Recover the amino acids of this structure.
C-alpha cells in the first residue's frame, strides 16, 4: 500500500492517531466528496472557493468559466493552494460535554495549479466529473460544442502532499462518567439523494432513465 | 432587512445574480451548516481547517484544545481568516453537459480571530455549539469541570465582511436543447440524521431521550 510522505505541512499534530497517509484512504475520501474548498492567498489575505471536482489518478481537477476571476488568479500567478474536503459521518454523543465529538473523514492537499490544455485530458476530466456528480449521466446528454469547450477552463492539481484525518466509532468518556444516567452513542449522518424533481419544461413522454432510478 | 456591505473581497464577480448580502440569508446558511472551513495563510502559504462552529449574533465561534497548533497560530499572530460553509442542495441535471450545475448555498466570511476570555461568553458559546450539533443535548450531559474549561480555547470572529452565493431551481438550457429527448430536472440532496447507534458500553436501562427520538 502506497502512502504520502509526512511533511511539515501535512503532519497531524493534534490527535495524531487520527492522521492517515495511505493513498487508498485519501483517494476514497476525495472520490466520495461532492465538493472541495480551494484556499489560496494573495498578499497573505486568504480566500477560499467551494467547487465541484473530480480526482483522476494522482490529480484533482476543477473547472470553471474562462472568465472566472479566481481561476485566472490561480493560473496566472501559479498560487499555492490548500484543498480540503470533509465528510461528516455522525455526531458522537458522549456522557460529558467535553468528550462530544464528530465522526468525520477529511483530506487536505497542498498543491499548485496547472492549466489543462490537452484536449483529451480536458474531455476526460469533464466526462468523469459529470459522471461523479451523477453516475451514468455523460452518455445521455448533449456533449459540449466548440464554443462551450472554449468557454471552459480546467485546472489540475497534482496530489503529492496530502493527508487524511479520520474519526470513527463510539464516544470515549472518562472512566467515572460511564456510570452516569446519560444516553451515549452515535447519531449517524448521511447525505442522501432524494426523489427527482422533473424540470417544469420537461418534454412530454420522457421517462426517468435507469441510471437515475 | 439589514445587509453586509459589498467590498472588494466579498463582491461576487462570477454569476453576480447568485450573490446575496442580507444578514438573514447569511445567518440562516451559517446556522444550518454543521462545519466550516477556516482558511489562513502564513508567508503566503494557505492552510485550511474544517471545524464545527456556532454563530451567535454577529460572531462565529470555534473551539479547540489550548494545545491546538492552528488555534494558537491564529490567535497569537492575529492572522486574517476566510471562513466558508457550503450546503449542497441538489444536482441540476440539464440537457447539455455545459448547463449542468449544482443547487447550493454557500457563505464566505472575512474576519480575524479574537480569543474569548469572558467566562459567560465561553460558557454560552460551548452550550450553544453543543445544542446546534445536537438540539437539546446540553441539559442532559455532564458539564465541563474546571480542568476541561482550562483545556478549551474558544476563538470568535466578528461577521462584518460576508457574502452568500445561492443557486436554486430547475436547469436552464439553451433554447434549442429543450427539444432533446433527455430527462432534465433536479436530484435533491439532503444530509439526514439516521437511526441512533448506542454506545456498546451504554449503562443498562437508559432509554433514548425525547430530544433524540
Amino acid at each position: 500500500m502506497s502512502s504520502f510522505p509526512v511533511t511539515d505541512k501535512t503532519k497531524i499534530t493534534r490527535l495524531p492517531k487520527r492522521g492517515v497517509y495511505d493513498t487508498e484512504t485519501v483517494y476514497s475520501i476525495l472520490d466520495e466528496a461532492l465538493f472541495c474548498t480551494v484556499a489560496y492567498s494573495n498578499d497573505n489575505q486568504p480566500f477560499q472557493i467551494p467547487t465541484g471536482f473530480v480526482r483522476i489518478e494522482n490529480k484533482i481537477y476543477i473547472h470553471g468559466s474562462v472568465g472566472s476571476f479566481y481561476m485566472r488568479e490561480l493560473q496566472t500567478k501559479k498560487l499555492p493552494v490548500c484543498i480540503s474536503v470533509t465528510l461528516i459521518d455522525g455526531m458522537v454523543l458522549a456522557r460529558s460535554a467535553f468528550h462530544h465529538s464528530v465522526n468525520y473523514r477529511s483530506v487536505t492537499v497542498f498543491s499548485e495549479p496547472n492549466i489543462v490544455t490537452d484536449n483529451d485530458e480536458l474531455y476526460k476530466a469533464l466526462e468523469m466529473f459529470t459522471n461523479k456528480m451523477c453516475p451514468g449521466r455523460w452518455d445521455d446528454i448533449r456533449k459540449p460544442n466548440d464554443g462551450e469547450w472554449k468557454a471552459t477552463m480546467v485546472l489540475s492539481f497534482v496530489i503529492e502532499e496530502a493527508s487524511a484525518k479520520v474519526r470513527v466509532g463510539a464516544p470515549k468518556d472518562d472512566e467515572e462518567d460511564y456510570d452516569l444516567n446519560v444516553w451515549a452513542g452515535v447519531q449517524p449522518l448521511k447525505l442522501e439523494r432524494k426523489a427527482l424533481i422533473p424540470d417544469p419544461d420537461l418534454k412530454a413522454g420522457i421517462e426517468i432513465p435507469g441510471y437515475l432510478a
Q: What stands out?
A: Chain A has one domain: 16-212.
